[in-house]
Amino acid sequence: MARYGLPSTHTFGVSMATMQPEAKRLGRNHALALALWKSGWYEGRIMATFLGDPAQLTAAQMNAWCRDFDNWGTTDTACFKLFDQSPKAWTMVTPWIKQKGEFQKRAGFVMMACLAAHDKTAKDAAFLKFLPMIAKGASDPRNFVKKGVSWALRQIGHRNLPLHRAAFRLATTLAKSDDSTERWVGRDVLRDLTRPIVAKKVRERSERQAKKGIVRRAT
Q: Where are the chain's structural domains?
């Protein structure tokens, strides 16, 4: 686990491949999720993200868990498997990206990425509002923050052609920056957005949206 930057203490060493089927068998159980999170064990917290009920999450609970984030595994899994399904998900982004802690700040950008991936009804304008935040966050040199920033911009660029163009423009600007961290983020995003498989996916997604009468505009 330490090889991948995950905790090597206060952990049992149980794999995701073991935990996920067990979580599916148990089903949603918010009370159990809260208790597992409180245990402090790495696997307990991962299981908590699988078992928690997004409809029962309160802002206080989400903020409390965010304060506990101390590795990318629990941070990303909580956001990707639970938090982004909460009606309060969008309200968490701005305060979290302003946090000083590395994983707390990462959580805000991971939430952007998760919402871009999973919220199929969100308008382009909602994601365009994230771009100035991403531009500002791109100068944070901490490893897990800059990778979260890159993930957010890449995932926004995957939604459709207008957002792909907007993400590409920002990434191009960052790639030309005098700041080394901004350059890293820009180049990392550009490598992804220029891949043929991504271009094909974005084009096909936009075509499906056009057939459904969904008009997308991004400037």
A: 1-96, 120-219
pLDDT tens digits along 81-105: 999 999 999 999 999 999 999 999 9
* 177, 166 contact by CB (below 8 A): no
pTM of the model: 0.92
Taking alpha carbons only, the member of 142, 91, 137, 83 closest to residue 114 is 83
Backbone angles phi, psi at 33, to 5 degrees: -60, -45
Return d(Cα 74, Cα 114) in angstroms, integer.
14
C-alpha to C-alpha distance for 91 and 114, rounded to whole angstroms: 13
Residue 37's closest CA among 15, 18, 63?
63
Residue 75's pLDDT is what? 97
The token duo for 39 is 């245990």
Q: Which two tokens stand for residue 41?
A: 């064990």
The tens digit of pLDDT for each residue in 151-171 reads 999 999 999 999 999 999 999
